[in-house]
Every structure is written in structure tokens, then in C-alpha cells.
Amino acid sequence: MASENARPEVTQTVSFRTDRPQTVGPDAPELPFPIKLSGPVQRGFGRGGKDLGCPTANFPDESLPPMSSVTKTGVYYGYARIYCPEHEKTPLCDEDSKVLPMVMSLGWNPFYKNERMTAEIHILHEFQRDFYGFEMKALVLGYIRPELDYTSREALIEDINTDKRVALNSLGRPAYEKYISDGHF
């Protein structure tokens, strides 16, 4: 179980990891999955898009208990959807408001020496605009890997790209695809 007060021991990488599986998890989600999350998208540290080429949508701290109380830190996969507030003058386009595959980092981001636990979601889609303050709902369906402390930014980026491929492969199974139309969304 992860806790905001207890930072877990984290393995440090010394080289690129080349032997990762391309699909993870059972053929259908098993407990504690699916885990439902929701909350407004807030600004994070700005590192995802600028430093890593992987922009993230961050949940506020009060959205974390459903995850942090039943899981460990690491990278997860599932689906997410962004909802445009009614008062927004420029709504999202149809493609940007669909249920889309995502990867999520839950943890301390040891490479960056975070002081608090964060939940950062990268939706596997090229959005036409920012959506800070919009509502995001996510359905976490499986676990990819533990949180690691990288010795280089390049190694971190390589693993992030592998995480994206693993998420898409894992979500491509029929028992996972059905969650696109889950009532949570």
C-alpha cells in the first residue's frame, strides 16, 4: 500500500532496460481494478511536455486516495476522458472529448526528487488545446511497472515510450476495450 507519508525504496536504473514485456496484466482486469478517479486537471511541474515530450494532466491531491490506498507507486494503464466545463467558451473538439487510452505515473518521481506523491496522466492523444481546470475522469485498469530512479533523462524517456506501447497493447484485449463505454465516463 502506498502512503503519502511513506516514500518507498526505489530501484535505480544503471542502463536502458531492453527486456520489458510488451503486454502486461491478466486477460481481464482483476481486483483492485478498475479504480475510478475524477477531479479537475491542475497544473503540475511542467516537466512532462517540456522536458520529457510527454505532457501530463495532473489530479489534485484530494483525488488520490482511491489509488494510493490500494496500490503501490509505479506506472498504470487505463482510459481517461476530459470534460469541458459548461461556462467554457471554446469547447473541446469531438476527438479531444472521447474516452482515450492513458498511462499514469503514481508516485514520487524520484528522478526529479519530488517532495510529495503525484498522479500524472498522459492521455495517448494529441490534443488541440490545453484543458487546465477541465474535469477529468479516469479508469485505471492495470499495472505496468514499479517507479524507478533513472540515471539519465534519456533512459527515463525511453521507458516512458515503452510504457505507452505496453499500455496500448494491454488495452487492446477485448476485456479491457469494453471499459471505453463504462458508466464512469
Strand residue content: 25-35%
Strand order of the largest sheet: 2-7-4-5-6-3
Return Rg in Å: 16 Å
CATH architecture assignment name: Beta Barrel
Give the overall form: globular
Structural category: alpha+beta
Tally of structural domains = 1
Helix tally equals 4
The CATH class: Mainly Beta
What is the percent of helical residues?
A: 10-25%
| Distance separating the two termini | 27 Å
Protein name: Riboflavin kinase
EC number: 2.7.1.26
Pathway: Cofactor biosynthesis; FMN biosynthesis; FMN from riboflavin (ATP route): step 1/1
Family: Belongs to the flavokinase family.
Describe the structure.
This protein has 185 residues and is α+β, with helices and mostly antiparallel strands. 18% of the residues lie in helices and 26% in strands. The chain has four helices and eight strands, in the order E-E-H-E-H-E-E-E-E-E-H-H. It has helices at 47-52, 65-68, 153-171, 174-177; strands spanning 11-12, 35-40, 57-58, 74-83, 100-107, 118-123, 135-146, 148-149. Strands 2-7-4-5-6-3 form a six-stranded antiparallel β-sheet. Strands 1-8 form a two-stranded parallel ribbon. The radius of gyration is 16 Å and the shape is globular. Mean pLDDT is 86; it is low at 1-5.
Q: What are its keywords?
A:
disordered N terminus, 185 residues, six-stranded antiparallel sheet, globular, 26% strand, two-stranded parallel ribbon, Elongation Factor Tu (Ef-tu), domain 3, alpha+beta, 18% helix, 4 helices
